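Archive entry. Fields below.
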Amino acid sequence: MNKIEISVNSATCYKNNNLIFEDINIELKNGDFMLIIGPNGCGKTTLIKSLCGIQKLEFGNILINNLDIHSKNSEYIENIIYLGHKNSLNNDLSVQENLEYLSVFDSSVGSNNFDKIKNAMDYFNIYKYKDYMISDLSEGNRKRTSLARLVLSKKKIWLLDEPLSFLDNNILDSFVSLIKRHQANDGIVIASTHYDFSKSISNVKYLKMETK
Amino acid sequence: MINILIKKELSLYFRNLNNIFLPLIFFFLIISIFPLVLGPEKTLFNKIIPGVIWITAILTTLLTSNNFFKEDFNAGIIETYLTSDVSIEIVLFIRIIVCWIFTCLPIVIFIPIVSILFDITFQSSIVILLTLVIGTPILISIGIFGSALTLGLAKNNILTPVIIIPFYIPVLIFSASAIQSVSAGLPYDMQIYILASLLTLVLPTMPYLLKYTLEISINN
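PREDICTED_STRUCTURE:
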């Protein structure tokens, strides 16, 4: 699936009868970068989870190439990689073991990927920590380990929830260039953030959310 | 893929050795409490010790499976499972099996020692061993299912046992009946066959059930 169009139509989500967000409309195609901006509690994380398909919507739908993402025929799950604000890392495994383990869940990485994992660790400057347990790392290095999955993966749609939290400014540039490279490869990036890092990125769309 | 999964599970268990030894120590502690409470009367004890072993095995599986997914849930790994395009049923199946190997298999291995300790006849101890080998994988699977079911709730420590113990009853009935039959000198193969059929029903379906349950729990 090379050509991808995502459209979200009047998405509305409730959790325990509380309105989280309502009437969200998004149109995205290859090469787009969408920033979801808004204050705490406006539903950024829930919206990203809905886009992953792990949060059900009350009304509205999310279509990929005109197929609902929950329908059997849609190849949505084959195309997304989701990085939540939790890092999805196992505290008792080393950086390298975590990346090996997480690449099992991503069929686009392929097998025998030792060199790829080394490259990914190099990209985010964590190769020197490769044998450290995650519990011994700083929050920022944990985030870098989590982001290294993006270098490994060949998936088209990136769903990033607060990718910048705990990251220092040195790594921000390489992260932005990673996003640009992905856009050039016809990928789609959807990221929620407090800090607008989109200055040097083209094809940016903004979604401003407000607290209900 | 499968070798990475197995390697990860094994290294996690071997790095926390108390995960292996604590269930075993717990098992021995509970079993040794019974003679203290009930007194050293041998005829009574011979009668109840198979049941005691089974109750202790149940408590051990309850405690080990109670928070099976909690750590992964807090770390966000469950979300990675559910947004993954590989079949996570295999992952869950391997995790159930490895959990059984490290929490119940040590108990099964130590049953001969317990038998000598409490003077159980050879014939009975063979049947206890057999029912435990077939029964505990079912108990562990159901326990893990309970932990998946209560994942979204903040405080679930006592809720999980309350939900899942009723599902333990069929396994218990047939195990106890097999043990009673052998001590009465009756054939016990029927009960063993029923237990085995329960195992072949529960074990292959459990990963699918778990995936579905995790999806619901995450959605809350």
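CURATOR_NOTE: Residues 88-155 of chain A form one domain.
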